[in-house]
Amino acid sequence: MEFLIPSRTARPGDDPIFSLNAAATKRAQSGEDIVNATIGALLSDDGRLAIMPTVAESLSTLPFETVASYAPIPGREDYRKAIIDDLLGPYGLTENATCVATPGGTGALRIAFEDFLEPGQTALTSSYFWAPYRTIADESGRKVATYDLFDAAGRFNSTDFEKKLDELMAAQGRALILLNTPCHNPTGYSLDQTELDAAATVLLQHAARGPITLVLDVAYGYFHPEALDRCIATFTKLADRVLVVFAWSGSKAFALYGQRVGALVALCPDEAQRTRIGNAITFSCRGLWSNCNAAGMAAVARILADPILRVKVLQERALLVELLAKRVAFWNEHASAAGLKYPRYDGGFFTTVFSAEPAKLSQALAARGLFLVPTAGAVRVAVCAVNEAQIARIVEGLRAVGA
Q1: Which residues of 30-60 are buried (b: 16+ CB within 10 A; e: fewer)?
Q2: How does pLDDT run across 72-86, given as a tens digit for each residue?
Q3: What is the C-alpha to C-alpha distance for residues 347 and 324, in angstroms, rounded to an integer?
Q4: Going by C-beta distance under 8 Å and a sequence separation of 6 or more, which residues neighbour residue 192?
Q5: Strand bridging mode 370-375 / 35-37
Q6: Do residues 340 and 378 touch, judged by C-beta distance below 8 A?
Q7: CA 250 vs CA 72, 107, 116, 126, 181: distances in Å
Q8: Residues contacting 237, CB < 8 A, separation 6+
Q9: What is the pLDDT of residue 310?
Q10: Domain of 156: which CATH number?
Q11: CB-neighbour burial class of residue 134 (10 A; exposed 0-12, middle 13-18, buried 19+)
Q12: Same structural domain for residues 228 and 351?
């Protein structure tokens, strides 16, 4: 007798990325000299987790009553206000936003699927995408369709984006679009201003046909501040015709991966509709996870509200951005010289190398002690997790196996 419902019987027991990480860790523990470029956490050159000392201090000095207490269902009020101010304050839009705390950016994405798409409907994202998008969609009874991310010139394919959005609006009368820029996972691609404008034009062309929700997945955006500013400035101008939603991640912005703090921020100028959205996303919080990590929220709220702590964290984050930028430059220099085919890469935790057989390529690299994640049409390189010497080994390994 099978107790699982039919749609659950063939589910894999582990996430592929974490499975590869476990395999790499096991081989390293056995004494093998491996390179683990799988997990999306920023490591220092000695392989230790890169942290922000002020964040660590803020977290470790919280009163135990704060750490142990339940947080409100939508999240601490000071936390939610701080996130809205941080994202939208420079644009004078804080009064037009509503926000709930979520367990990482993943939680924000889950709520977006639940509240802005009907069961059975389809979200739209790029042809290269973070694989858990599909997991989240599947788990919530929705689907994911894709447009070609790159055109023949290797730039954002606004033509195919428009075509697929047109088809989706015709089929279901509404759209949920997942746009992961800047520092796209897995490609590392960031849309430039011309590409952002092209995407905005497409959205406006279809906005009158039905509700369009644009989810800006800005999980890695703080590691490309200029591009994040361009992204926010471009798309917030659409807020009177398109619902603009941010999936924000404290895991990345504050190097607080294990605290699982994130937020969904919805920008809606209409007060009555904004209230309805706030009610709906709060209801979803209660039904999905009840409330979030009180300690992580308190630490982030304290930092963002205190001018001195905020400046310290900005300085500490700048050092991490500089560390990553050096690796990005090193990758670009050596991967280009080796003739590897990969997208434009100027920031972010990951890049990808195109491959017609990514699973086969990943296996060949693993045999050499190099662990990279296969995705559709490419293998992902977590530049965030490897130093320059390891990047050189990865590039040589890719060249040697004919990538």
Answers
A1: eeeebbbbbbbebbeeeeeebebebbeebbe
A2: 999 999 999 999 999
A3: 8
A4: 227, 230
A5: parallel
A6: no
A7: 18, 12, 23, 24, 16
A8: 200
A9: 97
A10: 3.40.640.10
A11: middle
A12: no
pLDDT tens-digit readout, 158-216: 999 999 999 999 999 999 999 999 999 999 999 999 999 999 999 999 999 999 999 99
Report the distance separating Cα 375 and Cα 149, nearest Å: 14
Q: Identify which of 88, 114, 363, 46 has the alpha carbon closest to the alpha carbon of residue 218.
A: 88
Strand 122-126, strand 143-147: pairing: parallel
Per the prediction, the chain carries an average pLDDT of 95
Are both 316 and 300 inside the same structural domain?
no
The 10 Å CB-count burial string (b at 16+, else e) for 361-397 is bbebbbebbbbbbbbebbbbbbbbbbbeebbbbbbeb
Reference 146, options 132, 163, 114, 154; nearest CA is 163
- Answer yes or no: do 248 and 323 share one domain: no
DSSP H helical ranges for 218-293? 225-235, 250-253, 271-288
What pLDDT sits at residue 7?
Answer: 87
Distance CA 52, CA 311 (A): 12
pLDDT at residue 403 tops 80 = no
Looking at the DSSP assignment, which residues form a beta bridge with residue 380?
352, 373
Angle at 41 between CA 38 and CA 45, to 5 degrees: 90
Both tokens of residue 178?
A: 């997942």
CATH code for the domain in which residue 316 is found: 3.90.1150.10
One-letter identity of residue 216? L
d(CA 311, CA 313): 5
Nearest to 277 by CA among 231, 245, 302: 245
Per DSSP, what are the bridge partners of residue 99?
A: 265
Instruction: Tell me the two tokens of residue 141.
Output: 């009874």
Quick one: 194 and 166 in the same domain? yes
Among 190, 35, 192, CA closest to 126: 190
Two tokens at 257?
A: 């991966």
* Six-digit token string for 389: 């010497």
The pair of structure tokens assigned to 125 is: 């994202």
Q: What SS3 string covers 62-74?
A: CCHHHHHCCCCCC
Q: Which domain holds residue 368?
A: 13-42+310-400
CA angle 128, 129, 131 (to 5 degrees): 125
Domain count, the chain: 2
Q: Which residue has the tokens 């996303």?
A: 281
